[in-house]
Specification:
There is one protein chain. By secondary structure, the protein is of the alpha+beta class. It is 48% helix and 16% strand. It is built from 24 helices and 25 strands. The strands form six sheets. Strands 1, 3, 4, 5, 7, 8 and 10 form a seven-stranded mixed sheet that branches. A five-stranded mixed sheet has the order 13-15-16-18-17, with helices on one face. α4 packs parallel to α13 and α10 runs antiparallel to α11. The N terminus is likely disordered.
Amino acid sequence: MPVHRNIWGNLSIVCILLVATVLFWPLKVVEGQATGSQAARIASLDETTAKYDLSPVIDILEDPLRTLTVEEVATPTWDSRFVPNRQPIPNLGFSNSAFWLRVTVQNLTLARDEYVLELAFPRLTRVDFYQPQTAGESGERLKARFSHQVSGAEIAFVQREVKHHNLIFNVHIKPREVKTLYLRVTARSALTFPLTLWSREALVEKDRTEVLILGMYYGILLVMVVYNTFLFVVVRDRNYLLYVLVSTGIGVLQFAQDGFASAYLWPESSYWASHAILVLASLSAVFVVFFAQEYLLLRRNAPGFNKFLHGFNGLNGCAVVFFLVSYNVTLHKLETFGGILLFLILLAGTILCMQRKYRPARFYLLSVVSLAAGFCISLMRNFGFFPDNFLTHYSIHIGTAVDVVLLSIGLADRINLLQAEKQEAETVAALKEKDVELFRLRNEELSNINHKLKELDQLKVGFTAMLVHDLKSPLTVVRTTLDMFKSKDLPAQVLNELLTTSERNVDRILTLVNEVLELYRTEAQGLQVKLEPVAPEPFLSACARSAQLAASPQSITVEFRRKTSLPPISADLSQLERVFSNLLSNAIKFTAPGGAVVLEAAAVQGSGVEFGLTKLVVSVTDTGEGIAPEAIPYIFEPYRQAEAGRKKIGVGLGLAIVKRIVAAHGGNISVRSQLGVGSSFTVVLPAVSAVPDEQGWESVAGETSIPNSLLLWGEKAAESAAAIPRFATQPFILVADDNPINRKVVQMQLKKLGCEVETVANGLEVLEALSRKSFDLVFLDCRMPEMDGFETAAAIRQREQGSGALLLHGGEPAKDGAPAVRGGLPRLPVVALTASSIDGRDSCLAAGMDDFLEKPFKSEELAAILARWLPVSFEQAPQN
């Protein structure tokens, strides 16, 4: 390709220039005389300054033969040959010469005489530090003119006078004293002299900050290595392994360049201190090449670059072995040249991959650029183009950290891209399984899902079979009763027994159906509760009394115990009644005759994060069969029953509904059980503060309105007689239902209660009937053709608000100027009459209806509706 050839041509030119630059143009010290007097280049130490950058006062002397001694360079003969440093940080490139650095300092302080000289470039091979002897010093040093300290890469860390990752020397300068300090430096690496004089306290503080920053840097590298090692173990993609090797190589190389490797990895070895950086650099280059070939898919996207990198990696492998046995300036030059060449090759290969629309190459390009930017910024700082601040001082660390993070992000993007390509290939060739390991995890996941689906299917099959059984069993009784009614010679007592048995079995069917419908409502629409302040003691006492009535035929005692004064709660009393009636009825059902059921309540103060909160704890404990331990985790899940439950009537939905009601109140429910001993269900509900307000919180401690269903539960169990309503005047009722049989049944029930009834088939006929006559109450079926119950109710309310088309109660039309109730006509009581599981009470009330009656219903429930909306009195039905 032309683009490919153009890149190779430009790369060849750049490589030639690099070889010439690195091998034949090393930086040299310019010979000449220092400008200005020696006194003008003195570092003055005062009381207020703790750090002194010595670069502006450094004088440099090159010793090509490496034979000069400190006594010689300190003489006036060599004094004029020192050249003043003109760089912010002295940088002399690569050289086999020895270099002498001279710094003159004057101590203007009154008491401080201990300082520390730091040469923050631990790669230097050997640094000899000389300072003139101070009068009064004892020991062998008095025999010499200069005291001597030595450090550097060829000096083992344990042999250094000052144990520090940088090259550190102790400096003694008495107050008001002027000293000239000398350093002799030799290096096989680049010659860079970031020289700083510190007070001891300032150096300690600087080290703390530096350790914190470098700790964050190495922490980032470690996190990325550990994270991608985990991904490699899970995914088994060797790109992650190569990434880990690259990141580890970069981290260990930087660890060595910062001087920490000599301190912590090989403190007693000067060999590794000298050779490690070259070896690690070449080894890291090997890993970088392998990773680039895999990540960029160079075999497919750039075959020429891929072949070149194969040869380059071969040379790197040889260099690793060669660097283990040899160490000189030329090798450092080759290392630098190889690093720059590798950067240019990777840059060109990445650009070529981007031109071929390979998306992950974007992240690789950013990582390469960030790494190069870090090195370039560091070089620009050394040559004075950039100031020495946090970003420039740690630019290499920042660049390598960003490089590692970007490579990790790019690796994730590459994996996503490869997964998309594999999915597309799987779609095209679904029947070709080329990689079993690729599908292993997916097959395992699908197997788990399939297992769960089968388990769910088994639960549904078992639930359906149980539901059918529990419906057919009572229906059999009803069917048998109807067949026996055809016989005209049955005694009256037998007929009454059959009717009573059939009624109980119909109630059983309705209970099962209502449980299924309630579970559906809570799953599809969520459970809605209307919270009001409730005093729990009278409510729970009523629950216990009603349960006792139901348990009396089996000689089971139901006892209510109150341990402490019970706090008020905020609850929907009708929903809460379902909770405790279900728990109590279950306790009675699973308790043998002669057993006991205890309803116990107490107030509990919260602790820990719930300190200051009060909770109401109510438990229902029985002496029944108990629950198997393996069934307890599933006891509140729908469609499941414990083994003991399968022996009783029910489909296993009651406790699931109970849990949802308790959760809607902000509480929780739990169970403890032991086989052969019994079970205890505990409900915990949050209490509220009984603070008097306009809504009568004071009444919470006194009376609580008990739901009619709760009052009727015990009465039904005791089979008490129903009350018969008596009306002052015969009410006129309109019944709307599209089913003629339903209309007939409701009409018969209303007439039995003493009502006059008219029936219609849909909402339009309702409006037509209301325009002709006046009715005391309307029963509306919610699901009717042409106009359903919701539309009809809305139409009635609309005409009541602003229209005189409907007759007033009593048959007289509204007159102009006559006072209107609620804007037009008096509000006509409208009661929803439905068997739909979707038409809930809230939906009906929102549509403008006043009450709700769910089919099928009993005459007592119908009478209760009439008593609620019409003037009525009750008299007790005669006992048989």
